[in-house]
Design brief:
The chain is mainly α. The chain has helices spanning about 15-25, 30-35, 50-60, 65-75. It starts with 16 loop residues before the first helix and ends in a 16-residue tail after the last helix.
Length: about 90
């Protein structure tokens, strides 16, 4: 998740991405996302297994901001909010 200026990023793990994105957009997500108004989903990975997902989350959280931006831009060059196209298929 990121803000409208794409300057602050949040990385998290969930078992229901569509629900979690909706929570962030409604301002009921994490305290961090509320504080920095992080409401746009610009990148996600589907990972099988909660432990693998947690390991990937920890890995990405250690990355420099520039590395995270490069990863996002590798699949979403314009850093658009991908949740606007609909996440119903994830339900």
């Amino acid at each position: 998740m990121t803000n409208k200026y794409r300057t602050t990023f949040y990385i998290g793990v969930t078992n229901n991405l569509a629900r979690r994105v909706a929570q962030h957009k409604q301002g009921t997500g994490s305290v961090f996302t509320q504080k920095y108004e992080l409401k746009d989903l610009v990148y996600y990975e589907l990972i099988r297994g909660m432990q693998q997902a947690i390991n990937r989350e920890k890995q990405l959280k250690r990355w420099h901001k520039e590395w995270k931006i490069n990863l996002i831009k590798s699949v979403n060059p314009e850093m658009k909010d991908v949740s606007e196209t609909g996440l119903e298929w994830l339900l």
